[in-house]
Amino acid sequence: MSYDRAYWEQLWAKTLRDHPDKVARRPPNAELIAEVASLPPGHALDAGCGHGAETLWLAAHGWKVTAVDFSASALAHARSTAEALGSEIAARISWVEGDLSTWTPPPDAFDLLVCLYVHVAGSAEAMVQRMASGVAPGGTLFMLGHRPMDPATGKPTAAAGQVQISVESAVAALEPRAWEFAVAEERPRAIAGTGVDAVIRARRVP
Ligand SMILES: C[S@@+](CC[C@H](N)C(=O)[O-])C[C@H]1O[C@@H](n2cnc3c(N)ncnc32)[C@H](O)[C@@H]1O
């Protein structure tokens, strides 16, 4: 299966059409909130923002957010949700339709770069390095990757067949003198009840 733009666009269009309430109720990611809630708000990038739950949480907590995804349907839904929350929150968000396999963030631009559960077309290390290039000195890179197999059962997870960011790829990709890892570990998945997530929080040395 190819997890390309057409695949995601079709999936988002169907999901938003068939289950809009379920999508609207999906809370922002608990790992993200736990790891970044104490950071002072600045400029964040949400790479692969989907329907925008994390972007909206960040904006509601004072962050200016650039939110990138290649699904036009997901972005349209996210934008209208932001507008419904009011002009103050909506004005803090820039929605960008872009393909993260080639889209590169502006260099050293973001105090926080979030990339959650994005399937990588190509090498995971190259993806980590592309995302890391957008983090400002002193800024934070926070990434989650769903592992393709549940180590407890050996069964495939929802990410089977995908390449997502792993602890190994993040550690290999980031230059140790330039990055301090606060978290680089696998944790049981809080939602869906199966599998583990790679959890990465790294600070770029100022
Ligand atoms: C599993 S969803 C995760 C969405 C959100 N980050 C979350 O945690 O709920 C993956 C998202 O990444 C987007 N995506 C996948 N590959 C992408 C790419 N190459 N460029 C931009 N967006 C991509 C999909 O459209 C989808 O919204």
TrEMBL record:
UniProt xrefs under CDD domains: AdoMet_MTases
Presence of keyword rRNA processing: no
Domain Methyltransferase: 45-139
GO terms under biological process: methylation
Pfam families in UniProt: Methyltransf_25
SUPFAM superfamilies: S-adenosyl-L-methionine-dependent methyltransferases
GO molecular function, one term: methyltransferase activity
UniProt keyword list: Methyltransferase, Transferase
Name of the protein described by the UniProt record: Class I SAM-dependent methyltransferase
Annotated organism of origin: Stigmatella ashevillensis
Origin organism lineage: Bacteria, Pseudomonadati, Myxococcota, Myxococcia, Myxococcales
